[in-house]
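Example record

The entry below shows one chain as it appears in the dataset: sequence first, then structure tokens.
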Amino acid sequence: MKRFSTSNLLWFIAILIFSACQSNTTAERPKIKQGKTLLTPTLDAHGTLQQWQEHNDLQFRIGENPGEQFRLDLKSRHEVITGEGYTLGYDGKRYWSDVRDTSVGDKNAKFLVNLQFYFFAMPFVLADEGVSLAALPDQEVAGKNFNVIKATFGSGVGVAPEDQYLVFVDPQTKQMEYLLYSVTFFNRANAEKYGALHYHTWQEVDGLLLPHKATRFRWDSEQKKLGDARGEKVFSAVKLDKQHPDPSIFAPPTHTD
């Protein structure tokens, strides 16, 4: 029978202890849940992704009549935005703006196209290709606990792929209630400088639960809490259609550059 020397025995024990520590470390290390299935319960609570994807034409308004009016092809994301004294859009070839009243200021079409649509179409737009989702630890906002899902974008996705979104989901209803968002179009360093939206009033349109009113807040990143209110978005005159809109409505007027 082969005997272990004292040195061999000590070496064997050391290996066992190291293996046990590695096993415990692996078991204790939290796993970050990732993937589009994270969002499925929330999509279902808002009417299901399938129901959303059946539609191709979206119209809505922000503000009082006439306010600012939006129309999109939901598959191509071509859009035309009409306000008092200006129209701007994207037809798949170029971003364009037609400012007829200089008092409204500059209108950067590349920045503004799909911007308000993204806030309106949450959480459905986070099921798009190129979006990566990860579950973050639960977080309390205004005295209420929420599940949190972080959304980031692949390189080259959209005009500002460094943008980030944090979706705060009610654990009981699975509905989205808060959204943190960053705006990096003008400065990529702002990826984790968030603003906040509180979606507090909803409307049902064609079986989908879509936002009606949302309050804008500053977000205190150090304290991880809401700051001062900054106004309210009111979404109205919502229309959905399964037919695609006529592509010509997204084309720029002939007199634009």
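Notes for this example: The two ends are 93 Å apart (CA to CA). Residues 1-7, 12-18, 20-30 have pLDDT under 50 and may be disordered.
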